[in-house]
Amino acid sequence: MRPAPTRKKLRFYQRRLRQARMVARAIQSRNHPILAHIVPMRRCNLSCAYCNEYDKVSAPVATEEMLRRIDLLATLGTQIVTISGGEPLLHPNLDEIIRAIRSHDMIATLITNGYLLTPERIERLNRAGLEHLQISIDNVNPDTVSKKSLKVLNQKLVWLKEYADFDVNINSVLGGGISHSEDALTITRRAVELGFETTVGVIHDHGGQLQPLKAEEHAVYDQILAERKPGLFAFAYDNLFHKNLVLGLPNDWQCGAGSRYLYICEEGLVHYCSQQRGYPAIPLEKYTLEDIEREYTNKKACAPFCTVSCVHRVAMLDLIRNEPREALLRLFPPERPGGPLSLPLGIRVLTSIFLPNPSGKRPTAARRFLSGAVLRIFGVKSTKKENQHELISISGSRGRPRTP
Ligand code: SF4
Ligand code: SF4
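# iron/sulfur cluster complex -> structure
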């Protein structure tokens, strides 16, 4: 049954409120992961030539074990859990895993190749409480590199448009042996036509590192930026990371992998990311606030040419948290040198409420009241210790520091 338009709208605004709360809490405290990727299934039904994240043999991780890992992520204070793979739709109890994520009030998202989607499967995902789904489409027609093709997936997109009660993002890719770079533009146009969010990724090598784009790929990238309707953070992301990557230039940033972003493999070990597996490779049940604190500032040699976009996005929130004025300058640069920042309205309102006055003056009582009220609406409680960047031990529903 198709969701009624009013229910769809209501769920849409509920998700936006939950995302706003997520952003507020991520900025307010640094002692918890913002995003964790979790793998319930290493096996995949496809075999894309560039991929190092799948096999053809592994069994699904036992459901009880997945639920235990989700409890552990909640204990660490994780805000978003993305289920990836392999192909997660092959897991027999995926809906139960999604429900478990939502039961801890964490945001539940899924990355899939889309092959197994049907109207009935999409409705089950609605009922389980999925909030966001991403499909990466590599080309218009299947070839020897990838079968994640618009030709094969178009009907799935039409079903998502009709039945999905969650956000859908269509990611197109450039580089990495994709033969027709203009396909990325065709895919973006189709996604925009169906009303989906779009992103474009640069395919990385097996270490998550940049493969510089050719001139024609660069031209397609520029055209995609001109035609798509970017969300707030997609626009900021392009300014901060993609602009350099498409030119083959390094980025100067602090990678928060192991701290603000965790990658939990099928064996339940915490790794930096899908491309840096083996570090630090600590079992999730032994991962503590001390590990999170250590990795927050730990420099990763792979960072300058990294293309792992979900970790970049998490880092944007920490940049805003740590150096708000510099972050805004980099995320929303002025249209002309020396001009005012091109801040979207929502960001302008939030910065005027939360950022310290550049003149150093103490905020007025009215402004303090307003910022307190906004934080309460977002369900965020201010703690002095967290604001002082101290490592804290939180008892009750949160984790405890590991004893050496
Ligand atoms: S569909 Fe995804 S996980 Fe499967 S082989 Fe392709 S890129 Fe890898
Ligand atoms: S910089 Fe971070 S996210 Fe990128 S490859 Fe290295 S560890 Fe992974």
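# post-check
The pocket of iron/sulfur cluster (ligand 1) is lined by residues 44, 46-48, 51, 53-54, 85-87, 113, 148 (CB under 6 Å).
The first strand starts at residue 35 and ends at 38.
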